[in-house]
Amino acid sequence: MPENFIELLMQAPVVVLLSYLLGSLSFAVIVSKFMGLSDPRTYGSQNPGATNVLRSGNKVAAALTLLFDAVKGWVPVYAVMHFGAAWGLADGTAALAGLAAFLGHLYPVFFRFQGGKGVATALGVLMGVSPILGLAIALTWLAIAGFFKYSSLAALMAAVLAPVYYALAGDLVWPFQGPVMGLLCVMGVLLVWRHRENVNRLLAGTESKLGKSKDKA
Fold it and tell me: What are the residue boundaries of the structural domains of the chain, listed by start?
């Protein structure tokens, strides 16, 4: 059995657990409560994410939610990629840490496993993998959202294109790593799955557009 695989099994669990716990911090709920706003799980799409917080009409709260949700995805990936070798962590741990943080956002232990859809956290993970890749996906999201006015459509396209961008520019703009490619594919599938209701509404023409004020549940 390869030595680095044994090392991964020995070191990864602690990193993965901490990454999951960090990802489990639902900042949509935390920021809204701190700023005296309604719980985002009680209005609009009832999704604890930045887009739904924006429906409260408070742009600052939405921006803070987006920032913190992205940071919690970025921190574990960046830390392991830059300091993992010194900590004795094996190759592939960064991908596991990013996936754990992402799953923590989707299924947070601190909030009864009822989390958001993971767009901002996924972007943070991409920024940890490569700032250029993260910027490319962010610009893709902005372009699609700005043109069509549908956050969900932009998220779906970004989820599909992330592994495509990574593969096409691998070893040219950033080093290509199999575990990272697997991470992007898994996150993409999960993002599409979490947006399945949005897909149905998009097809039916009933999806809410960006900037629409909240509807009380």
Answer: 3-204
